[in-house]
Amino acid sequence: MTDFQVVPGTLYVVSTPIGNLGDITQRAIDVLSQVDLVACEDTRHTQKLLNAFSIKAKTFSLHDHNERQRQEQVASWLQEGKSIALVSDAGTPLISDPGFHIVNSLKQQDLAVVPVPGACAAVTALSVSGLATDRFTFEGFLPPKSGARQKVLAALKNETRTMVFYDAPRRALDTLEDIVTVMGTERQVVIARELTKTFETIKSDSAGNFVDWLRADPNQLKGEMVLMIDGYQADPDAISPEVENTLKLLIKELPPKKACAITAEIYGLKKNKLYDLTLAMKW
């Protein structure tokens, strides 16, 4: 035990391990040991964590279905001077887990909300993905149905940042097939499954190859999964639709070489490439 002491009237948002119990922080243990109450996504699941560290804490449920109803009670407890820890089943609360409505409500009432950082599956997976980490977007869970999932993927098709999703492994094959349909077979994908656990698997490959791999190994369709997709990388030599449209307009009024020369000057392109385009396409 350290010299740390919880502050009365404070909600602590506490990150817990995503698998390996050794990843819990000393500060998280201190907070969970001292608070008056622990708000849990699943009290039975959290009780196992508390038992593992011999923490005797009173728990109550706070999940998607009762969060809004709990807001007034939680605020009242804090105003009475009680200290409360908010945890999810694993990782950092509020990251595709319950807690947003409670935290938002408490912040509006100027009640104290303090983070106790630790494990987060999305960041853990991203750190070993081999994909670009300077810019990324976290998109949470993909829709369970193919049509809705393809719609989400289509909206992200030209996203240049690395995309991070949570997905149920049992749907992984269907998800990869949708990625192939929307983004193509060559889009780079990384799957991080069962992070920090015994059967941790981190694999990188093209979307097309992933479909074959998952079909061949049903064991990969179990556990918890983070799915990452490489951001869209434009072909530096590709001619944009805007350039094509300009060229189409000019070629109606001018000889092809003159139209190509003017378009090249406007967009800073090589006119020979534009001329090759005019020969290859039907205008």
Automatic annotation (TrEMBL):
Q: What class of enzyme is it?
A: transferase
Show the GO cellular component annotation of the record. cytoplasm
**Pfam families, per the entry:** RsmI_C (PF23016), TP_methylase (PF00590)
Annotated GO molecular function terms are: rRNA (cytosine-2'-O-)-methyltransferase activity
What top-level branch of life does the organism fall under?
Answer: Bacteria
Question: Which segments constitute the Tetrapyrrole methylase domain?
Answer: 10-205
Of which family is this protein a member?
A: Belongs to the methyltransferase superfamily. RsmI family.
| Function, in words | Catalyzes the 2'-O-methylation of the ribose of cytidine 1402 (C1402) in 16S rRNA.
Task: Identify the NCBIfam families for this entry.
Answer: 16S rRNA (cytidine(1402)-2'-O)-methyltransferase (TIGR00096)
Q: What is this protein called?
A: Ribosomal RNA small subunit methyltransferase I
State the taxonomy lineage: Bacteria, Pseudomonadati, Pseudomonadota, Gammaproteobacteria, Alteromonadales
